[in-house]
């Protein structure tokens, strides 16, 4: 049985599918602070298998310990946490409490229950401003905001834990920019309020929920002047967790980038989304957003070598899948009714 913390969220729900499709049993712990249980109903409908859900907070050590024991959990995929950069500047202590203290309590419960396999959801944001590209795992670590610093503190804490007891099996996965949705269109990213990330905003403009995209900066030192990022399909990202779990059959500590190795500009995303959706995405180029960098993309070599994992889905597919989710669920999970799960394609089974 695998415990997925934050399993009802955007990445978590896709990770649950990867696990269930691989024949693993799943228990999800989520405090639903930024997610809904409806995502898990849909996960079960997609997979034709059930999972266990516990509405709990990772800071509640006793409850987590009970769950680990009651369900015979053998490994934890830890995604629960707060993740908005701007918000982390406004209320840093809430980020430290949820992310750092939450992970400390989780690890403590794991120690008590003697569960020593942990896959941690880190972020490429730990690198800060790139000194060179592509970013490999040896790049210096200098996050530029409280959110990024909580991720780095947790990585360092887990490194120290492993150094003190090398029977732990730990993977720190540094995500680049997750995008897209499950190909069924049943689950996807459902941000509360105004989306701060690019793809959800573009999708809401395409469907007419918002008037136009504001592109933050058209004067970067990039071919078209807009920012460049490494967008990775969330289903590829989810598969990376399964690869990490397989690699952790032996004790060890791994810190790995999960990215594609390719950079796409904001304008590339706009044009690809327009092509995939057949809708227009009006935009206006405005001032740069504070804290943004010109370009950021991964060197994915280590992931390939150590996890035998690479991303396979294109930007076109991310946009097509994101659009399907948006079109079928214009108001995200709040729409209520559970749409019928479509036939599975062989494409997805290959990645399960
Ligand atoms: C952001 C976070 C990063 C986090 C990641 C998770 C910041 C500074 N960084 O990365 O720490 O790990 O999300 O997904 O917030 N853009 C627009 N208009 C918009 C939205 C975005 O032009 O309305 C541009 C941005 O300027 C950037 C690109 O699109 O060039 C991607 O932005 P975003 O999706 O917010 O991701 P990051 O900033 O790379």
3D structure, described in words:
By secondary structure, the protein is of the alpha/beta class. It has a single domain, classed as Rossmann fold (3-Layer(aba) Sandwich), CATH 3.40.50. The chain has twelve helices and 14 strands. The strands form four sheets. Strands 3-2-1-4-5-6-11 form a seven-stranded parallel β-sheet, sandwiched between helices. It has a three-stranded mixed β-sheet with strand order 12-9-14. The protein has a two-stranded parallel sheet with strand order 7-10. Helix 3 packs parallel to helix 5 (92-113), helix 5 (92-113) packs parallel to helix 6 (146-164) and helix 7 packs across helix 11 (315-328). The protein is globular and about 55 Å long. Mean pLDDT is 94; it is low at 345-352.
Q: Can you say what the CATH homologous superfamily is?
A: NAD(P)-binding Rossmann-like Domain
Biggest beta-sheet profile: 7 strands, parallel
Bound molecules: uridine-diphosphate-N-acetylglucosamine
Task: Report the average pLDDT across residues.
Answer: 94
What is the tally of beta strands?
14
Write the CATH fold name.
Rossmann fold
Query: Strand-and-helix sequence, N→C?
Result: EHEHEHEHHEHEEHEEEHEEHEEHHH
Number of helices: 12
User: Rough shape?
Assistant: globular
- The share of residues in helices is 40-55%
List the domain count as a whole number: 1
């Amino acid at each position: 049985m695998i415990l997925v913390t934050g399993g009802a969220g955007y990445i978590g729900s896709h990770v649950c599918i990867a696990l269930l499709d691989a024949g693993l049993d799943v228990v999800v712990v989520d405090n639903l602070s930024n997610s809904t249980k409806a995502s898990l109903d849909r996960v079960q409908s997609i997979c034709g298998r059930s999972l266990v859900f516990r509405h709990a907070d990772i800071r509640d050590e006793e409850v987590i310990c009970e769950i680990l024991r009651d369900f015979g959990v053998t490994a934890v995929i830890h995604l629960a946490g707060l993740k908005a950069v701007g918000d982390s500047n406004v209320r840093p202590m809430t980020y430290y409490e949820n992310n750092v203290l939450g992970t400390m309590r989780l690890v403590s419960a794991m120690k008590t229950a003697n569960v020593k396999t942990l896959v941690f959801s880190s972020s490429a944001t730990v690198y800060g401003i790139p000194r060179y590209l592509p970013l490999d795992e040896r790049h210096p670590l200098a996050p530029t905001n409280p959110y990024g610093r909580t991720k780095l503190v947790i990585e360092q804490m887990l490194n120290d834990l492993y150094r003190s007891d090398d029977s732990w099996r730990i993977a720190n996965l540094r995500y680049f920019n997750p995008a897209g949705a499950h190909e069924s269109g049943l689950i996807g990213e459902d941000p509360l309020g105004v989306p701060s990330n690019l793809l959800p905003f573009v999708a809401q403009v395409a469907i007419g929920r918002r008037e136009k995209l504001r592109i933050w900066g058209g004067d970067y030192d990039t071919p078209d002047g807009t920012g460049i990022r490494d967008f990775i399909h969330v289903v590829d990202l989810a598969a990376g967790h399964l690869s990490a779990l397989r690699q952790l059959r032996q004790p060890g500590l791994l810190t790995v980038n999960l990215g594609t190795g390719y950079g796409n500009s904001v304008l590339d995303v706009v044009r690809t989304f327009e092509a995939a959706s057949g809708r227009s995405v009006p935009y206006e180029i405005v001032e740069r957003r504070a804290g943004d960098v010109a370009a950021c993309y991964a060197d994915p070599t280590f992931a390939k070598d150590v996890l035998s994992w690479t991303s396979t889905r294109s930007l076109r597919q991310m946009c097509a899948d994101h659009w399907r989710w948006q079109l079928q669920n214009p108001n995200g999970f709040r729409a209520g009714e559970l749409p019928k799960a479509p036939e599975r394609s062989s494409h997805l089974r290959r990645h399960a």
